[in-house]
Amino acid sequence: MAGVDPLLSRDTVGRSLSRKEQLLYWLSAGFFCTLFLPGMPVVNNVFTGGLFVFSFFYNTLAEKRQLLVLRKEVLLMVLFFLLHIISVFFSQDKREAVNMLVLRIPLLLFPLSLGLIHIRPALKNRILLSYCCVVTVVALICLVWALAKYLRTGDGVYLYNDSLTLPIKMQSSYFALVVSVAVFSIFYLLESGYLVRLPKRYAQLSIVFLLVFHFLLASRISLFILYAGLLILAGSYMVKMKRTGLGLLLVAGLLICVVVCIRAFPKTLNRFRELEYPTYHFNSEAAESHYNGTLTPDQWNGANIRLAIWKCGWQVGKAHWLTGVQLGDKQARLMEAYKANGFEFGVRNRRNMHSLYLDIFCCFGIIGLALFLAGYLVLPLRTAWRSADWIGLAILLTFAIGMIVESYFDRSAGCLLAGFFFSFIAGYKDGIPGKKQWNMWVVG
């Protein structure tokens, strides 16, 4: 068990880590911090590069070759990125293709580094703890900034959605993904017995705070993922662990948190009311709805915008279903589909696919989509399930469901987060797992 100072590695478990494990831990913690530094990509690049170089030389090439054979998902991740490189040569717009390739380079760097080392459970837990601490501190900074703006202006808009994450210049939907992973990770650290005494109390307070903050971010898909995940966790306590009291307590606590948040911050519900108006007309010149304003059926909103985009994207993908339109030409072909359908709203705002699965299908066809699904979802999920790794399952499914409505690989934050966590989960696996009994305390 961790002692009173697990974050700084001065507890018993921390002192048991080797020097190179401690350095990997600190590089990972620095990487997490730099993810949220606004307007400072160079600093993040330094830590990303440092993490790659150190992890690449963390073990021998012979060990890496052996792990590459065992971890077939890592091999498929690398092949998926090689498909990007091939696509550059077949793209008509070479400049756009190269820009997208550079943006997505974390999808190659992390599998070749973190994905090909062995991360012991002690180090895995320590890295997750640093991630949770960084996310909690960043969320607290954003909330303090938002409250200061609200008290100065009296405008509640600063307490919700994208306005809440203005200090870190990250879209609320992406930070909601970050917070969801942090909440699941804190639950895992608590229930694995990793945190005791004072750190345990801090972790419990962090969960309450992050649940409220997550509600204010008002990301529909992330709210669904988080609450569904916590309800499944409660159900596991009651059914598999035979701890009915703890499961019911978790459900009751979640319901109380939701009710209090709805009463205190009602504007979040406006994001869900958009789902009442899914109809759209491509040639509509109506303005886009805003959670701080009045919602009307004729407006563009987060739901019907996606439906319109997906229809255009499907037209592009269906016409090039085998090999796709290639990386550099995807956005141009999507704009052509917008214009052909009279979707001027999409043209003006240059909306992307808003679905990573559709994005990959349009770029690389059914071949690329199959490669992506196998490497990023099917094999990792199968391994996590067979090894009874519920935190791995939770993180993988958080990304998998979020990818339905967001094109994570079109933004630097999405590539960095996906590249790190998919490779990190592969890194603490030894390969083909043996059969284990499902136990919420037996992980990795």
Rounded to the nearest angstrom, the radius of gyration is 22 Å
Q: Which of globular, elongated, flat, extended, rod-shaped describes the shape?
A: globular
Q: What proportion of the residues form beta strands (DSSP E)?
A: under 5%
**Uncertain stretches:** 431-444
**What's the tally of helices?**
20
Q: Give the end-to-end Cα distance, rounded to a whole number of Å.
A: 16 Å
Order of helices and strands: HHHHHHHHHHHHHHHHHHHH
Count of the separate structural domains: 1
Helix coverage percent: 55-70%
Average pLDDT over all residues: 88
Profile the largest sheet. Answer: none
Please tally the β strands and state the result. Answer: 0
Structural class: mainly alpha
Q: Overview of this structure, please?
A:
The protein contains 20 helices and no strands. It is 68% helix and 0% strand. It has helices at 12-16, 19-34, 41-56, 61-70, 72-90, 94-103, 106-113, 121-153, 161-164, 172-191, 197-217, 220-239, 244-264, 268-273, 302-319, 330-340, 344-349, 356-386, 390-402, 412-427. Helix 2 (19-34) packs antiparallel against helix 3 (41-56), helix 2 packs parallel to helix 8 and helix 8 (121-153) crosses helix 10. It has one domain (12-275, 353-427). The chain has 444 residues and is mainly α. Mean pLDDT is 88; it is low at 431-444.
